[in-house]
Amino acid sequence: MTRVLILGSAPNAVEARDWPREQFDAIVVINNAWRVRSDWTYFIHPEDFPQDRHPSDIAPGQQIVTHTDYIPSQNRYGGVVYAGATMAFTAAYWALGALRPDHLCFFGCDMVYPPSGHTHFYGTGTADPLRDDITLADLTAKANRFEYFAAQQDCLVSNLSQNPSALPYQRTHIADLDRFIPKRRQIDLDIARRALALEQAAGYFVGSGRYWEEDKQFSPDVIAEIDKAWAETFAACVSA
Q1: Would you say the pTM of this structure is higher than 0.85?
Q2: Average of per-residue pLDDT values in the chain
Q3: Residue 238 lies in a domain
Q4: Number of structural domains found in the chain
Q5: Does 33 fall in a domain?
Q6: pLDDT tens-digit profile of 130-157?
Q7: Is 12 exposed, middle or buried (0-12, 13-18, 19+ CB in 10 A)?
Q8: Most confident stretch, 10-19, 90-99, 126-135, 216-225
Q9: Which of 53, 60, 78, 149 minimizes the number of CB atoms within 10 Å of its CB?
Q10: DSSP assignment, residue 47?
Q11: Phi, psi of 45 (to 5 degrees)
């Protein structure tokens, strides 16, 4: 089984610092998460991520993934408007297309932020998924959408976090990962087909990925209808 870890910058991300590297075939670190551990495989960041926050040393076997890599991948799965324009989903769709894992794990990507104190492992940062953005109105619906496409590739999805999370995936703990048997959530295929048909009918595809240049043409009501379908696509998450 090929297992990939998507590592974000939530306060609990530091717990991954000492996880056994052999648990994962690849570690995809988002933005500042490369600071958590030095043995990452892929560093993925948006076009506007400041250069002074990039890793200064790239070891053999490590690669940088930029918008020129992940926008084409997102487009193969319908485009950023439907995928959700935050890096947790961006990294996940890229990994799904480029790495073709059998099991994709999220950690440090809960997208639930405390009202005060540290929002990220490095201190207080901007909560990117909470931007006033038409593509991020329903994070759980976007998470369901990703799991649907993962299932089409026989890729299981789970969440290694024990904290409150916007990700509805099956939970497990790193200590149990080797004996963990992921269970697929049941997909209502009729609702999934409806969600895809609504996307096709709306035609909100922006090949460049620069959706904010065209978002005036996107109807919040149409996006909400699509999100509602994805939100209803899966049965309740199975407990680990």
Answers
A1: yes
A2: 89
A3: no
A4: 1
A5: yes
A6: 567 889 999 999 999 999 999 999 999 9
A7: middle
A8: 90-99
A9: 60
A10: T
A11: -150, 155
